[in-house]
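We were asked to recover a plausible sequence for a given structure. The inputs and outputs are reproduced exactly as logged, with field labels preserved.

PROBLEM: sequence recovery
POSITIONS: 336
GIVEN STRUCTURE:
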């Protein structure tokens, strides 16, 4: 039995796990729980661990045994009393029929006599009809059935659903915990400078798992090249950015441009460098600072956020055309 599994894998989740399991141990638990957090904090792992504990037939205090049949079925994602309701295509909503189907299934007795668990990993996939159908279940939940609902933002759910659940806002760990976790988990014992690790963590809104992914990715290794191309594009022709932006990493790159421009604004405002996102790119920040005045940077940021929203929201859009439009707008602001 791996007693401190959560503690060792994602230490920032330990406290949440302990508190929720404590409720179940003392029969003070709720029927439905909402977990609201950024991506990249390991919430899916937390929920699996809680589910394992609820289903485990050989619990050891707050820990599941990890070896009984139920634990293994949960680990393999095939426990017959666990219903994970999601649409594999993230943008497609869950229809009301799916919820009606679920009601039929959970109104029957459980297969393994340990209750039932319904898990919605993406609450925002519910539309008005399916949200209302879920609300009806939460108003009169079947016996011994628990609900785990996940969202990135409280606004993704109906206030009436919110009021029927225990709400857990899960925050990223503080910077020191994030940095020490990243140092332990970097691939092939990579030795990166603390400023670089810190910058990745800040760029990823302090979500350590996302920062780890970024640090292990080739685009991080090429970040200096990216920023140098950005500077030379500002100096010569903004349209030169098209060749590097027009690929699957576009959202990353737009975030990077946005965040470095925010740092340039901080520099204009004479904010202490220790509060910057890109602590490892101070010379680039100074170069942009010398090239573009603050009012123009503010306008550029607005454009970047506007076009980023379009790229996220509309799936079927011609990416290249959107990027060209963005670059033309940036050029217009820059040259005005
Ligand atoms: Zn077990």
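RECOVERED SEQUENCE:
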């Amino acid at each position: 039995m791996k007693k401190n599994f959560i503690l060792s894998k994602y230490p920032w989740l330990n406290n949440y796990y302990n508190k929720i399991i404590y409720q179940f141990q003392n029969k003070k638990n709720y029927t439905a729980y909402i977990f609201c957090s950024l991506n990249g904090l390991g919430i899916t792992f937390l929920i699996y661990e809680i589910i394992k504990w609820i289903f485990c037939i050989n619990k050891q205090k707050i820990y599941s045994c990890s070896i009984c049949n139920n634990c293994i079925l949960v680990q393999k994602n095939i426990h017959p009393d666990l219903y994970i309701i999601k649409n594999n295509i993230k943008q497609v909503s869950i229809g009301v029929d799916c919820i009606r189907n679920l009601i039929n299934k959970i109104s029957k007795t459980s297969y393994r006599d340990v209750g039932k668990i319904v898990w919605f990993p993406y609450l925002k996939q519910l539309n008005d009809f399916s949200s209302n159908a879920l609300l009806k279940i939460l108003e009169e939940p079947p016996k011994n059935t628990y609900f785990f609902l996940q969202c990135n933002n409280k606004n993704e759910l109906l206030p009436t659903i919110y009021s029927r659940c225990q709400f857990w806002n899960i925050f990223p760990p503080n910077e020191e915990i994030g940095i020490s976790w990243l140092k332990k988990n970097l691939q092939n014992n990579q030795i990166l400078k603390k400023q670089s690790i810190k910058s990745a963590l800040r760029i990823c809104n302090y979500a350590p798992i996302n920062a780890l992914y970024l640090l292990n990715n080739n685009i991080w290794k090429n970040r200096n090249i990216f920023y140098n191309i950005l500077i030379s594009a500002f100096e010569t022709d903004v349209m030169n950015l098209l060749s590097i932006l027009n690929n699957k990493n576009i959202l990353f790159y737009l975030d990077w441009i946005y965040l470095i421009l925010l740092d340039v604004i901080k520099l204009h405002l004479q904010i202490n460098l220790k509060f910057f996102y890109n602590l490892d790119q101070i010379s680039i920040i100074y170069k942009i600072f010398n090239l573009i005045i603050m009012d123009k940077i503010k306008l550029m940021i607005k454009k970047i956020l506007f076009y980023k929203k379009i790229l996220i929201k509309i799936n079927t859009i011609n990416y290249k055309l959107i990027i060209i439009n963005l670059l033309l707008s940036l050029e217009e602001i820059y040259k005005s």
